[in-house]
Design brief:
Layout (H helix, E strand, L loop, with lengths): L2 H15 L7 E4 L11 E3 L5 E3 L5 E3 L4 E2 L8 E8 L8 E7 L6 E3 L5 E4 L10 E10 L10 E8 L12 E7 L7 E4 L17 E6 L4 E3 L5 E4 L11 E9 L9 E11 L12 E7 L7 E5 L12 E8 L5 E6 L4 E6 L10 E10 L13 E11 L6 E2 L23 E2 L10
């Protein structure tokens, strides 16, 4: 059996599997020869002449792309029922690629392709067939048009439009949350076999993420993924044709996924007790010091508001939230007096201003600390009991005579005597 016969049998077998793809399509041009309704025509002698029904005899065949054989690829055979095999007919081929890409044996009607054909460049070729009598050069068949369809082979791997994708998903998302969809395309024929049927799988990024095989949608696969523990993930997705079966071609892409922040962390004071000192002479509005709670979240999720909620100095001090530094600045509200009170205790609270209801169960989103404020003594001048004194004395009084007494007191402690 020759190579050509083996190839023909192989093509015939493939046609039987996919008959809808293996036909050589054609349509005839109208036959302009006069006809009568009875199928007869009368000559000059008045005798009826019976005309034989003529027609092309088309073989059903197809052409595979990317043929790698050393000889020309056999396409098919044109044959007229008027061909008696005596070489009196000549077959002529015209149209797309005739004479260059497609050649015909003018005696037998066999058509061959002269080179490899890529279906992705051109999926079909429209040609015209004609059979003429070699002696008279008159057509024995009307010119007919047919289409050679190029059948696909799996010669293109799936490709992604981007080599690297970037995506984000909120931390603490529930399992199955959609992150991003990646889509690969395959240049092979989607209507023929599974050459262009792409299946997605994940090569890197488990167990944190998964991908839907049919759609390429990447989803979260683990619950409670915490940005504070890990923020960046790299996922590698494979797209494989032939429905993912062995032997299919594949392509990959990388997806960099960032966990975005949600408010899942309450503020925390680093110390349970904070000590501050302030001179008693400090005017109202003086900043004594600051307190600051830390929050593992970022942006608005880490914003806090400070307030004094208890203590024996609630009427003596204020606290103001500094937005840019997220500190609580404690200031003097009323004048201080060391001799009246030397120590104040405040209970300060820091609370998140943007709380996500989904994470109430992780709360409360606030914390407290104790602030102890010591008032420092300042050496104050003595104070006389009167602003002025008036004493009378005789002009002839003796030296050293006591003419009166003035009194002053020291607002400071008794350890500061007046001289």
């Amino acid at each position: 059996m020759t190579i050509q016969q083996v190839l023909l049998l192989l093509l015939l077998w493939m046609w039987l599997l996919h008959p809808g793809h293996t036909e050589l399509l054609f349509r005839r041009t109208p036959d302009l020869r006069p006809k009568n309704s009875g199928g007869r025509s009368s000559g000059n002698d008045g005798k009826a002449i019976h005309r034989q029904k003529r027609g092309w005899m088309w073989n059903q065949f197809f052409l595979l792309e990317e043929y790698t054989g050393s000889d020309y690829q056999y396409v098919g055979k044109l044959h007229s029922d008027q061909d008696k095999g005596d070489g009196s007919l000549k077959y002529i081929l015209s149209g797309d690629g005739a004479g260059t890409l497609f050649i015909i044996d003018e005696k037998t009607g066999d058509i061959h392709a002269t080179r490899r054909i890529d279906r992705e460049e051109k999926a079909f070729y429209t040609l015209r067939a004609q059979a003429i009598n070699r002696r008279t050069l008159r057509p024995v068949e009307p010119e007919s048009e047919f289409v050679i369809k190029i059948h696909d082979i799996n010669d293109n791997e799936p490709t992604f439009p981007e080599e690297i994708y970037t995506a984000s998903v909120p931390e603490m998302s529930v399992v199955g949350t959609s992150v991003v969809q990646v889509t690969a395309t395959d240049a092979d024929d989607p209507s023929y076999g599974n050459s262009a049927r792409v299946i997605y799988s994940i090569l890197q990024g488990q167990p944190y993420f998964s991908v839907e095989p049919e759609t390429g949608i990447i989803r979260t696969a683990l619950p409670n993924m915490n940005r504070e523990n890990r923020e960046q993930y790299q996922v590698v997705i494979q797209a494989k044709d032939m429905g993912g079966q062995m032997g299919g071609l594949s392509g990959t892409t990388t997806v960099n996924i960032t966990l975005t922040d949600v408010n899942d962390n309450p503020p925390r004071f680093p110390q349970s007790t904070i000590h501050l000192r302030i001179p008693e002479s400090s005017p109202v509005g003086t900043a004594i010091g600051s307190v600051k709670a830390t929050d593992a979240d970022t942006g608005k999720n880490a914003e806090v508001e400070y307030r004094i909620i208890d203590g024996d100095g609630t009427d003596m001090f204020d606290i103001v939230t500094q937005k840019d530094t997220q500190e609580g600045i404690i200031t003097v509200r009323k004048p201080l007096d060391y001799e009246t009170r030397r120590l104040y205790t405040l209970k300060v609270e820091a609370e998140n201003t943007h709380v996500d209801p989904r994470f109430y169960y992780l709360g409360p989103f606030k914390d407290t600390t104790i602030v102890k404020i010591s008032v420092e003594d300042v050496d104050e001048p003595p104070v006389f009991s009167r602003s002025s004194y008036l004493f009378e004395v005789h002009e002839d009084i003796e030296l050293g005579t006591i003419i009166g007494t003035v009194m002053a007191r020291d607002p400071d402690s008794a350890s500061s005597p007046i001289r």
